[in-house]
Amino acid sequence: MHSLSSLGEILHRGLVWRGGRLTGTATSCVPSGFSSLDAELPGGGWPTGVLTELMPEHEGIGELRALGPALAEIAAKGHCLAWVDPPYLPYAPALHAAGIDLSKIMIIKARYQKDSLWAMEQALQSGACGAVLAWPGKVTFTQLRRLQIATERSSALAFLFRSPSSALESSPAALRLHLEGCKGDLAVKILKRRGGPLARRILLTPVPVVEPPLPAKTITDHEIEPATMDSAFSAAAAA
Asked: Which letter does DSSP use for residue 29 in this model?
């Protein structure tokens, strides 16, 4: 009787999950801002303490659009947003238009890849960051496992941007998504989640945002340099 009770508690707390079934999670989540996506994410949003891999079809496809509402909510609560080695510098007006507090953005540029991974670990373990976004390039399973362990010890969202070919590689990340364009919008395919992959694509329809007036002081050169949310990367890439 005791063993059955213990098993029931484990399942209820989400410490294990059953294949083929969408499960809840013991960790907290941040709503993505897209009801169609939240309905397919265990827990109903972006999970904290879990490594999430995003694989855009190509840079500038609008990959940051999927994270905009969540990042805005995290920054509004006073938490920092760490960006580790983004391929292009984020475009301040676009981030502001998405409702993200620019003063909470911290961009980290590392000279070597090992430093990039180290910076992500430190940001996750600092307790000051509500979300960490990183573009580490080629990483090994061992390095991913180390990042996953660092993420499990954190209460932050952890997003790792990787190439589409990475989908063929094994990864300890609990959530893996492929992003692609679809008639001007962004489509998401869930490759891995607790509960099995999702065969169909999820279309993320942009929610109209009323742009607030720009503050007198937004971002200084030493805090962050301009580059875009959606068009952030696409505009920089086209330049």
From this structure: E
Q: Are 49 and 227 in contact (CB under 8 A)?
A: no
State the pTM of this model: 0.77
Bridge partner residues of 106 (DSSP): 82
Side chain identity, residue 175: L
Within a domain: 13: no
**C-beta neighbour count of 123 within 10 angstroms:** 26
Residue range of the domain that includes 60 = 30-207+220-238
Confidence (pLDDT) at 119: 93
What's the structural domain count of the chain? 1
Q: Is 143 inside a domain boundary?
A: yes
Q: Which CATH number goes with the domain that contains 90?
A: 3.40.50.300
Evaluate whether residue 112 is within a structural domain: yes
Averaged over 156-182, what is the pLDDT?
93
Residue ranges of E strands in the chain:
29-30, 46-47, 51-56, 80-84, 105-108, 129-134, 157-161, 175-182, 185-192, 202-204
Residue at 69 is within a domain:
yes
| Distance (Å, whole) CA 14 – CA 152 | 14
pLDDT in tens, 14-45: 445 454 445 554 568 999 999 999 999 999 99
Give the alpha-carbon dihedral of 121, 125, 126, 130, to 10 degrees.
90
Contact 219, 105 (CB under 8 A): yes
